[in-house]
Amino acid sequence: MAHDFLSDDWLDAVEALRDEAPEIDGPAADLVINIVVTETPFGEDREAHLDGGNFERGHAEGAKTTISVPYDVAKQLFIEQNQQAAMQAFMGGKIKVQGDMSAMMAMQAGGGPTPEQEAFSAKIQSLTN
Description:
By secondary structure, this protein is α+β, with helices and mostly antiparallel strands. The chain contains 5 helices and 5 strands, in the order αββββααβαα. The model has no long low-confidence stretch (mean pLDDT 90).
């Protein structure tokens, strides 16, 4: 069953798959970034964080970087894996970065996803409206 991206039901469904998540190698493995998703259909901003490639609820204490991103761009970036849309949004000022900018660069490093990561992303996409 599919759920709206970042809804409580979606977050529950993603957390249920956590044990199936493939290992992340390279710079992103140790990366912790707080995320504020704005312009959500829920009427309020949503807070999340990336920790070693995993999307988690709320902000992580001690994260050196926080990005603010509109809902539609967050969905393109985190669900559709559309790096070009994210770059365009960043260049257009829709993505705002506070703190350590090198964390954003680390997200871009490391080459493409492994076949296991692509398969896991497809599972997440199938859960997402």
